[in-house]
Amino acid sequence: MSDGDNLKPVIDANSCTGCTICVEECPTGALDMSDDVSVLANPELCDGCGACEEVCPVSCITME
Ligand code: SF4
Ligand code: SF4
């Protein structure tokens, strides 16, 4: 378990539709697409803001 400030998005690759919305909405550029699925490509850039979780239309991102 980590503190709230250290939460990072965990993306369910099986549910991700590849819409790219989270990649576009991430303010830090931490996310990228890989094989039509969103991945936390640059975890060091993620500040845990939760924006990606909020915008995902199929709710396949959870902050953990
Ligand atoms: S939590 Fe915020 S900074 Fe981290 S990947 Fe999601 S939108 Fe980007
Ligand atoms: S917003 Fe959700 S469905 Fe769309 S690319 Fe991101 S994780 Fe996948």
Under CATH at level 1, the class stands as Alpha Beta
Helix content: 10-25%
**Domain module tally:** 1
Which small molecules are bound?
Answer: iron/sulfur cluster
Content-based structural category: alpha+beta
Overall mean pLDDT: 94
Please characterize this protein's 3D structure.
By secondary structure, this protein is of the alpha+beta class. The protein has one domain: Alpha-Beta Plaits. The protein is built from 2 helices and 4 strands; from the N terminus they run βαββαβ. The strands form 2 sheets. Strands 1-4 form a two-stranded antiparallel sheet. The protein is globular and about 25 Å long. The N and C termini lie close together (8 Å). The model has no long low-confidence stretch (mean pLDDT 94). The structure holds iron/sulfur cluster (2 copies). One iron/sulfur cluster binds next to α1.
Can I get a quick summary?
The protein is an alpha+beta fold. It has helices at 21-25, 51-55; strands at 9-11, 32-34, 37-39, 61-63. It has one domain (4-63): Alpha-Beta Plaits (2-Layer Sandwich), CATH 3.30.70.20.
